[in-house]
Amino acid sequence: xxxxxxxxxxxxxxxxxxxxxxxxxxxxxxxxxxxxxxxxxxxxxxxxxxxxxxxxxxxxxxxxxxxxxxxxxxxxxxxxxxxxxxxxxxxxxxxxxxxxxxxxxxxxxxxxxxxxxxxxxxxxxxxxxxxxxxxxxxxxxxxxxxxxxxxxxxxxxxxxxxxxxxxxxxxxxxxxxxxxxxxxxxxxxxxx
Length: 192
Fold this sequence. Notes:
By secondary structure, this protein is an alpha+beta fold. The protein has helices at 93-105, 157-166, 172-187; strands spanning 14-23, 28-35, 41-48, 52-59, 64-72, 77-81, 84-86, 107-109, 113-119, 128-134, 137-139, 150-155. The protein folds into two domains: 14-48; 52-187, Nucleoside Triphosphate Pyrophosphohydrolase (Alpha-Beta Complex), CATH 3.90.79. It has three helices and twelve strands; from the N terminus they run E-E-E-E-E-E-E-H-E-E-E-E-E-H-H. The strands form three sheets. Strands 4, 5, 6, 7, 9, 10 and 12 form a seven-stranded mixed β-sheet that branches. Strands 1-2-3 form a three-stranded antiparallel β-sheet, with no helix packed on it. A two-stranded antiparallel ribbon has the order 8-11. Helix 2 (157-166) packs antiparallel against helix 3 (172-187). GO terms for molecular function: pyrophosphatase activity. Belongs to the Nudix hydrolase family. Keywords: Hydrolase.
C-alpha cells in the first residue's frame, strides 16, 4: 500500500486538460490528459454517469426477492436484475430507490434501508450505484417509463442462483444483492 505523503496520495493523477467527446441522454464521454506520479502524461477515457439506485426487495416473509426481466442492448440478451434505475440530476438516492421500486414492480416500501454504495467500473466510469433493502412492501400499480419493457416476478434464493448459473443474472448489483441476501438467510443479520 502506497503511503500518503501530504495532502494527495502519491498515485494521484492531476488533470491537465479535459476534452468533451460525446454528450448523450444518459452518459457523456470525455478524454482527460493527466500528469502521472512519475511526471509523465497519459490520457484517460472517462464515462460520466449521474449514478443509479437499486433495491433488494424481499417479499413473502423474506423467502422471495423481486426481480425484473428486460432486454439489455449492450449484452444483446434478456437479463434478470433487481429493480434499479438512473438518478435524475440532484435527485436524492433514497427517493429514487422508492420511485424505481414502485415504477418497475408496483410495490411501495414503507421503509428503505441503505446497504451500500459502490462503483460499477472505476477504470473508466464514475457511476455510483446506491443499493437499498426493503421488506415492508405494499402492492400497488406498475408505472413503467415510456421506453421500458419488462416483467416482474418474485423468486427464491435457489431460483436466483440457478439464474446465475444459467447466465440470466450476471450484473454486479444483483450479484451483490444475492450475496447479501444469502448472508442474511444464513445469519439473520445484514452485512455491515
